[in-house]
Input
Amino acid sequence: MDNIFSIGIVGVVAILLIYFAVKTIITSNYFQQGINLYEQKDYVAAEAAFRKVLEMNSTNDAVHLFLGSILVKQERVAEAIIEFEEVIRRAPKKVDPYLRLADICIEQQNQRAAIAYLEAAKELLIKQKQPQKAAQVTQLLTKLNASN
Output
């Protein structure tokens, strides 16, 4: 009886491993397709590919960042902001969404919000020991503060 139980457990584990391996391969294929389409500037198709990835793995921050960038390219800024804010909510130590939101705010001439996002990005870069990037953000902050 123990033998049958052990075989059953091994079988279930094997099925789960196969399922997750196939799911990972499919997700990876959609992700790569999305990147290729993005590089070709086919933003509508790239968006569709990245949304398929998110259907399978909604917590993939890189996909949310790509999707946000695609939405900006399509002038769907409000939707892009949601994607970038989602990454900040889930992974507040990632710098990219702060920088992308700052870009949007600069484009919209919302200097105060842009400065806030850039300050947050600068602090993260300093904590992450990336002084060159922090210096670049500081230069941008100096320009923005001078124009106020």
